[in-house]
């Protein structure tokens, strides 16, 4: 027989305080047993706000008060003064304003002492609680230990930035890709977001690990997602990477089934992979070459660590330092060549290239440097600045320059959004035809 939960709630609230407290305690006992049975860790308890699925904030307050939890002092010295005066049967509301600065300071100091005492009481009270309940109590009173206890110094378990902050790329895009970016960036609809969510690595892991019968019930989607993310963060890097690759394969299938996302260049990879480290691993799996050290000193330090040497850079002769500089120059040239091949040949489309530049630090900078350092197939392989300048002058005299001038003139006129998009695409096509 179906029973309306709101009717049950109403009946419960009609019980006496003593009976309500009795069921609070039964509920908490079952909650602690569930945490132990399912081996749910403290991070998931707090980040998923699991205790709030059990008792509301006001019910938590009533429960902790019933077991003699410390009473929090008021926030302001004025409020503290008013409490003292009420105990003295003096309810004059304007009395605080009549006090001198020195008299007010006295109550400010008293309040500070009361807060210090409250924090000491919290520590003592929490030590006498069951371990599972202690975590929830410290979270409830927002004790400083809670934040440090959950997040600590390990970024592995810290929550990623909100999606609203991660939506826009924090990495620059090369100039020749700017035309692909739509000024009025479109977003995914709810159905597309739901489909993409199923491709996430933590979701894939959770669904593989837990059958339908073993999955927990959550009060809302936020609590569920937080719990899933927390258990995924506890995996080894090797296992995480395994599911990152599974996730990106699902993502590629998702893009094939939603061609309008690619056509409109709507970014999606940041919604799939919560950390840029995961995106870097994905592109590395496709063949992204390892970035060389920025300086000869860093190259020397890297090799010194590999050889477990105690020698310092300052101990080297100038000729040896010059050798490191020459070697690094060659390493960078090789890197730029492989980097260009990766971007222009390995990455399958302009859409994936845009996602690449959005997520990989220094990618745009390295790409533009590699373009400048590109060597003609007919060249002997030695880059000369004079050849680069001559080549640049020739390019400036080509029909592409005239087309760019006309394109810019068109874009400065009163075009519709669709017309602007077409002009930009024509520029890309023109550029490809001339360079081929």
Automatic annotation (TrEMBL):
Subcellular location: Nucleus
Biased composition (Polar residues): 148-162
Keyword DNA-binding listed: yes
Positions of transmembrane segments: none
InterPro entries: HMG_box_dom_sf (IPR036910), UBF1 (IPR051762)
SUPFAM superfamilies the UniProt entry points to: HMG-box (SSF47095)
UniProt GO MF annotations: DNA binding
Keywords recorded for this protein, A-Z: DNA-binding, Nucleus
GO cellular component, one term: nucleus
Region of interest (Disordered), ranges: 146-169
Name of the protein described by the UniProt record: Uncharacterized protein
Organism: Rotaria socialis
